[in-house]
Write a structure and sequence with these properties.
The protein is α+β, with helices and mostly antiparallel strands. The protein has helices spanning 122-175, 181-184, 196-220; strands spanning 3-8, 19-22, 29-34, 44-50, 58-61, 63-65, 68-71, 81-91, 94-97, 101-106, 177-178, 193-194, 221-233, 237-244, 251-263, 269-277, 282-289, 295-307.
Length: 316
Amino acid sequence: MNTIKRDVYALRDTIKIPIEVTKGTDMVGFEFAVRDYSIPGTAAAVAYVYHKSMEKPKGILCDINDSTISFTPDNNFFAVGMNELQIRVINNGKSLISFKEKIKCSDAMGFPDDEEESQQTLVEQLLTKVGKEEGDRKTADDTEREERIAADDAEKKARIAEENARAEADEAIRANRIVTLDEIDLVTEEGFFVDALAVKELNSNLTKANNDITAAINNIIKNVEITKTNLKVAANSDFRWTWDLPTIPGYYPLEVLAWNFHGDYDLWLNVSTAARYSTSNQFGIEGHNFGNGTATVTLFVHILYVKNGFCSYVKA
């Protein structure tokens, strides 16, 4: 609906331009935005109009949205000539009265098919509005209830469909599952599932195979550690040590795996050679100490031994 809009002030008066309407018009609404006062949400408002020809002011119940007051007058609300309009806001037994607005109502020619309509009293307007609000509320409640029922039905159907789909999927898994490793060789197409029993059997076989391989490796090779303590290394000098390798029945030494020195803070050793001498069946290590003083060190050496019959001797 088209509306006439004005900014109004409740705490100070301002210069106003008269609002112009025509007698008999009831299709144009009025909106007054209160700019200097916040209207409580529990308040009610009534617009009053007065003309010198009236015995007393006419009133009409208004709608309040935030701080905007609106109403749509009927065709007999204004009298021809200059009218004065005031809005009364009521909340908790207290009133707020707006400053007067000027309404200039122009006369209209007489229309033979016009029918006079008596003005509703404020009580009648209030009853009409309450009845409309109750009807709107009932309609909204009915709509909400219907929407809730429809949503519940849709959710129930979706849940049932999901449960049925899950049950069908479970049944397909049960029908197409493989429970033994022997059955895997029989599969020629996709879509089958391996059961936990088959996985358990596979895991058991892999564990046994790993244990067998580990035992076979441990039977073939051995990692023998040799420790030499209290080795003296002079400052800024070369060093060279050799030792006989231990005898392991059924095995022969193949290669030096690793070595490591532990010593005091003066130790700074550079190893140039660490090897097994096949001709003398000894281990030797040599290099240079770049430290500033004599160091006492411990040497840890790991030698790889191989079971007789595997590989061959490697000359250092």
